[in-house]
Every structure is written in structure tokens, then in C-alpha cells.
Sequence to fold (236 residues):
Amino acid sequence: MNANNPIVLIGGSGLGPWAWDRVTPFLTDHGFQSVTPRLRTTGGDATPAEAVDLEAWVEDVCEVLSGLTEATLVAHSFAGYVAAGVLERQPHSVRRLIFIDAILPRPNKSWFDVMGSGVATFMTGLAQDGAIPWFTREQLDQLYPGHGISDADFAWMRPRLAGQPIATYTQAAIKEPLTADVARAAYVRCLVTNPPVEDVPTDQLGWDYRTLATGHWPMVTHPEETAQVIMELAGS
Fold:
């Protein structure tokens, strides 16, 4: 792979292009082109959350990729749904797909379908103006012990975070399963995330597999290590 081939970075729930600000300088220093799409409602985009669903985010990424060549797509957390949808709809645009502590979709199942009606009802009840707010500091500490996000990190993140449009959880991302045929896929597990976001059967999928000794938001807490694993996998 030529280092000039672009690396497209998509953050998980609540995150926008800003989430990669600590990672992209390392990529640039090694000659990689970074692209951080602003999906609707993220990164200060003013689109109302009620008007945004998963398909809209897939379309946003597909539009960005249509102007690129031999791109590596990096998906963190919920963005695994977005990236898998992009790969199914526009496979020719993705040279390499890297999931970082990402949720992997099931065919014809939305995130709510997989998580169950109890979770769907609870989270829908939390929604404000069509979006689920990001965690409070107390919720973050309780749900993700060992996350590694310092008070300074959280203060940097807080004004930039956006709620997750509720409709992104209600649509299926893919029709066909992710299999070993997706030979260009790789998975990076953040070891401190407990329980794991996904129990990835790498021996069955045949994907490249790496780990980071970090919590669930390594682009914030360990940007250099995150950049290193992205560059390694992008170049393989």
C-alpha cells in the first residue's frame, strides 16, 4: 500500500471528526492522508437528529469514499454498523476495513433487534429531540471502568459530543453476514473494555486481529498506539 492512500476515520456514538484530532498528526507524520467525514448531526452539523437514520450515515460515508481511491476505512464502536453497511453497498471503494472495538452487525437485524426490546424501550425513553445523550461522567465510570478518560480528556470531549440519533439503532446495516470472504477486514480489540464489545470469532472469520491495552476510546487516551495499529493494518 502506498502511504498516500487515504485512511477514513469514523468514530462511535456521540463522536465526530474531532475525535481523531490526536491520532491524525501521527498518521500525517508517516505520510498517510487522513479523512474524517462529518456525518449528519456530528461535528457541529445542524441536521436535526429526528431526520437522521443509519442509512443516512452510510450514505454520508459512501459519498466521501466515492471521491477517493484505495481507501482504508476505520470504524470505532457503533461505527462498525456504518462501515459494514458501506462495504456491502460500495465494496469497490474500500481497500481495507479496520474495526476498532466495534460492534459487528447481524444480517437483517438492527442494533435494537440484537440488544432486545428491554434495551430498546429503556434507551428510547432516554431520547431527547430524537437523540440519546452521551454519558455523564458518573455513567461513564460505572459502565466502562478503566476507560482511561481523564478529567482533562472529558472536559475536552464534553462540548464536542453529540447525541446519537435514535433511528440509527432501528435499521439493519447488512443483508449478508460478515464472513471470511471479507478478507480485507481486521479487528482491533481494546482489552480493558469489559465485557468485550464483541466476542469476535477471528479463527472462523480469518480476519487479522490485534489488541490495544486500552479502554474503549483509544483515539482519545492512547492516540499514538492507535495510530500505530492503524498504520500497520492499513499497510498489510
The chain has a mean pLDDT of 92. The longest strand covers residues 94-100. Strands lie at 6-10, 33-35, 71-76, 94-100, 131-132, 164-165, 185-190, 208-212. The two ends are 7 Å apart (CA to CA).
